[in-house]
Amino acid sequence: MSDATVAAPLARPLLSRRGRELLLGYAYLVPVGVCLGGTIVVPILRAIHMSLYNHVLIKPQEYRFIGLGNYARLLDDEVFWLSLWNSFVWVFGSVSLQFVGGFAAALLLHQAFVGRALVRTVTLLPWVIPGVVVALVWEFIYQPNYGALNDLLFRVGWLRERVAWLSDPWLVMPAVIATNVWRGVPFFAIMLLAGLQAIPDDLYEAARVDGASVGQRFHHITLPLLRPIIVVATATRIIWTFNYADLIFVMTSGGPANATQITSTYTLLQAYSNLDFGYAATLSVVLLLIMLAFTVVYLKTTRGVESVA
Amino acid sequence: MSRSRGTADLAERVLGGPVLWVGLALLTAFALAPFVWVFLSSFKTRGDLYATPLVYWPRAWTLGNYVDAWTSKLTPFSRFFANSLWVSSVTMVATTVISILAGYALARFRFVGRDLFLLAFLATQMFPAVLLIAPLLSQWHALGLIDTYQALIYSNFSFTVPFTVWMLVGYFESIPRELEESAMIDGCGRFGALCRVIVPLAAPGIAATAIFAFVSSWSELLFAITFTSQTEMRTLSAGLLYMVGQYEIQWGQLSAGVIISTVPVAVLFTFLQRHLIRGLTAGALKG
Description:
The complex is a heterodimer. By secondary structure, chain A is mostly helical. Chain A has a single domain, classed as MetI-like (MetI-like fold). Chain A has 13 helices and two strands. A two-stranded antiparallel sheet of chain A has the order 1-2. In chain A, helix 2 crosses helix 13. Chain B folds into two domains: 28 residues; 223 residues, Orthogonal Bundle (MetI-like fold). The longest helix of chain B is centred in the last third of the chain and has 36 residues. Chain B is globular and about 75 Å long. In chain B, 43% of the residues are buried. The N terminus of chain B is likely disordered. At the A-B interface, helix 2, helix 4, helix 5, helix 6 and helix 7 of A face helix 1, helix 4, helix 6, helix 7 and helix 10 of B.
């Protein structure tokens, strides 16, 4: 009898044990939900909303709903199309050179040598320092009169006249890409180095015993086993570089004459200089759509890679 | 690089010897030369900075550029530094707490939509930062948060939190459930088990993600220039840009400012690079 009276309240808790567990799980997710809801979800919805309005901060009297008007304007905007092309050059140039440099760096850093830890740390530094710092350091290097680049090229005898690297419409894109390559090589180096370290040494030993040369080992062991990480690293880098505005924004603000205007800096220009928030929001929504399309293609490709690997 | 079998040994010796050393020298120079140049410039007097042909090694060393940058009324780097330190530290602590809770929940509880949630965290990394600028500006404006630290800290969550949660889920999943279950049998609640068992075991991973949050907030530029308008609210990144915009660029002071902004993250990175790199690459290696 006494057992039953004690057991009765326990037998009917408000929620089952599993239910309470789940509720606790959701409770742990409340902070993350609030902070990402407020800083990502709501702002994105607002950006989409903004893109449907004529919303220029200095002309509040003209604020009104214009439907897809901003999107129609975008189709006729030559600078937008130019910025898309520039974005392509910027992403392709940066990522391909970063990949080549990073792969070479990873192969070097994977070898055993005295002072390896120090060299690794030093070579990874360009990647951790702030983007503004990178931009300003290179602006200084490119400076026509007191910059190191012109001076060094003079001393070697490859230059006769001072070159204004960041004001020449033909040189400016290669110049900002070179800066971005300097910054991004460590990223690929880190990723690929991690990939290299995950390859078992036995494989190389077995291949060596079978008489495979350095080149053959690289081609038949290193490359295929690195493939998944190469795909992941490249795709992340493409997305990141496409969205990345800081470097160009600080170094050239997209100039001269839009020669380095990529889509993300063009969005900033619309927001900061023209205070045209409606159009800036439209541009950023289009940026997002392009990245979504890219991600879908990427996910399909990686599934392919996984099934091969 | 020869591929034929006969020269394999020779190729190996060349690759392991001269090629390796030349490559390493080039790599180090490539990464380091720009830093060295700015570092030396930050100690140069005006005469050396603007000499033709350039003077690489300062003829006279001076700390004047640092003193000027640190105490300048127009661009007070002491203030910028304090602002950056505060914003990055608070972002780091808050991000870590939020992510530990969320990461633990996603690693241990099975609920509907868990995979979708995880995918959403990954997806936010492909969002352009410029997408958030206009809506966040009007949002902080409406809430009266312009020129406050809160606006910067909250905005930083948009890029720190998704990544740290994603990382920590992986760490927590690698810790055997039995460990916390035995702690719970011994009388710990869920939360007690999390604090006493999971967090200590995942400490290296948590440290790596915390450093990530700190370093990326330290580098943040666009939010910092958009949500602040007063000089005394600027962070280092925003202050450096502001310095360039103000007048003809003072390369000496600017170099000093660059070094001031770089040293803390470089030191943090040097001490924690092993953990940080392991943490950052673990996700990619898995899949």
